[in-house]
Design goal:
The protein has helices at residues 2-7, 10-70, 81-94, 121-133, and strands at residues 101-106, 111-120, 138-146, 152-160. It has four helices and four strands. It is found in: Cell inner membrane.
Length: 162
């Protein structure tokens, strides 16, 4: 190869050097520079989109916190334990589990302990969701045991009004 190089005329050598430089520059551009630049641009677009999504999530989280603090959408008209007992009975009827309530006992002005047997788990969860989301009752204590049939539970729940 060295012999071939030495046999070339000066003009041919210059042309080969220039072409080699052009090929190296082109190779550098298409193999390294362009993919890096494209990757950076895509990364910047992704970052911008994720930043926008994060801002929306933070805004929605602030709205949720504000709604939770104000109790918006929740009826909190429980004045004493007797109205709390009535609420428990009415809501249990609404969710068709009133026959499963064995005992409902007030514990102070704002707490009620509920004993239940053979209640379908899904209906129990639906009832607790109703009490929590619509009436702002909190579950202070809960103890559930499996019943003899799959999907059936027995348990004790202590509910607390705000």
């Amino acid at each position: 190869m060295k012999e071939r190089w030495q046999q070339l005329a000066l003009r041919e050598k210059q042309l080969l050097v220039i072409m080699s430089v052009v090929v190296l520059i082109t190779l550098f551009y298409f193999a390294l520079w362009k993919p890096l630049k494209t990757g950076i641009e895509k990364g910047q677009l992704r970052l911008k989109a994720q930043t926008h999504a994060l801002m929306k999530i933070r805004q929605q989280a602030a709205e949720v916190r504000q709604l939770r603090n104000t109790g918006a959408g929740k009826q909190t008209l429980i004045e004493d334990s007797s109205s709390l007992l009535g609420l428990i009975e009415r809501s249990a009827k609404q969710k068709n589990i009133n026959g499963n309530l064995q005992k409902v006992q007030p514990e102070g002005q704002r707490e009620v302990r509920v004993w239940m047997e053979n209640v379908p788990f899904d209906q129990l969860i639906s009832w607790l969701d109703l009490l929590s989301n619509r009436y702002a009752l909190e579950i202070s204590e809960i103890s559930l045991e499996r019943g003899n049939t799959p999907g059936i539970v027995n348990g004790r729940i202590l509910l607390q009004a705000p």
